[in-house]
């Protein structure tokens, strides 16, 4: 088992990564304050993995209640979070209870948000079951829900007590969801780790083939990268914004196309390609480096061109509400080199427009082929 720590002073917490962690009572017990435990999952994950986890918790003497939400990004809403509050109140849960998120990033983000709000803040544990949630969303305390006008617009920073990444559960993940997780892994490489790019170029075929050891290494390396950034800048005042590489474009795609139509990781993949193209237009990356980014995404079985029906103005409209907008000016994460991202507002807006125009044309051409 690999264990690392997110170093946040008295709010520090461990991330354990290994197969078969759902039944590890010894890892859960130290983080459960009282008897009351609310297990939150969804209609797809619960039938697969809830029973062994519930048995583990029951064997420790806990009162385990469950709240099973509908599955999908379209249900990442205040209404779903309210269903968690209903369950907590119906069972008279108090301030010392613990919420456990068993599922992907959608469940993790909502359970974290419910924990941040319930009786002004209770403990929670992340048990991420998708590759994306193991490498990214379960770590760092960004929690929340979507709004029809923008992704993750309602939320809070609220750190978990523990992250248990059971890599065995990845075996049941559909290939499209595995690829979505690979997008966030590629993100860590592109934003800050050129050696990781080389590693991925070598190992992406194995990762796509669910190679368990290789997946474990990728989860570990990604969590190390994220833990380091979060420890340095918990509330995104500076360096943490680099974790948003590809996201301003990606969130525009998710919102415009309708939540759940494009997976988060797919939209981020396209966003990273757009960031690379724009960096090239600014003279920061060579065309050969952009081709390397494209090849990485293709090796991960991810898209790199945006939806052909999405117009340049559609991007601009959604990007205008991005959380990184400062005094009405868009800030983007771009690449000064492969493995070296920066946050910048220092670009001619024409470069953004030209890049979006060119890539839109390429997407339309590809759609006609
Ligand atoms: N908080 C953060 O820092 C952060 C980081 C990245 C992404 N996110 C958010 O995470 C969400 C995306 O997360 P996701 O990709 O995990 O999506 P998801 O939670 O929708 O899970 C993807 C699908 O896989 C299913 N699933 C989960 N585990 C499974 C398993 N082991 N076997 C089979 N099916 C399984 C889910 O039920 C769902 O249908 C987005 O809302 C995104 O905004 C948050
Ligand atoms: O943890 C972070 O910080 C990230 O930006 C991670 C992203 O992968 C994630 O999608 C996050 O939810 C995006 O944050 P947002 O603030 O742009 O909603
Ligand atoms: Zn993301």
TrEMBL record:
It comes from the Bacteria. Pathway: Metabolic intermediate biosynthesis; chorismate biosynthesis; chorismate from D-erythrose 4-phosphate and phosphoenolpyruvate: step 2/7. The gene is aroB. It holds the Pfam family DHQS_C. The keyword NAD applies. Keywords: Amino-acid biosynthesis, Aromatic amino acid biosynthesis, Cobalt, Cytoplasm, Lyase, Metal-binding, NAD, Nucleotide-binding, Zinc. Binds 1 divalent metal cation per subunit. Can use either Co(2+) or Zn(2+). It is found in: Cytoplasm. CDD domains: DHQS. It catalyses: 7-phospho-2-dehydro-3-deoxy-D-arabino-heptonate = 3-dehydroquinate + phosphate. GO terms for cellular component: cytoplasm. It comes from Allopseudospirillum japonicum. GO terms for biological process: amino acid biosynthetic process; aromatic amino acid family biosynthetic process; chorismate biosynthetic process. Zn(2+) binds at residues 184, 247, 264. Catalyzes the conversion of 3-deoxy-D-arabino-heptulosonate 7-phosphate (DAHP) to dehydroquinate (DHQ). Residues 67-179 form the 3-dehydroquinate synthase N-terminal domain. This is 3-dehydroquinate synthase. Residues 181-325 form the 3-dehydroquinate synthase C-terminal domain. Its cofactor is NAD(+); Co(2+); Zn(2+). NCBIfam families: aroB. NAD(+) binds at residues 71-76, 105-109, 129-130, 142, 151. Its EC number is 4.2.3.4.
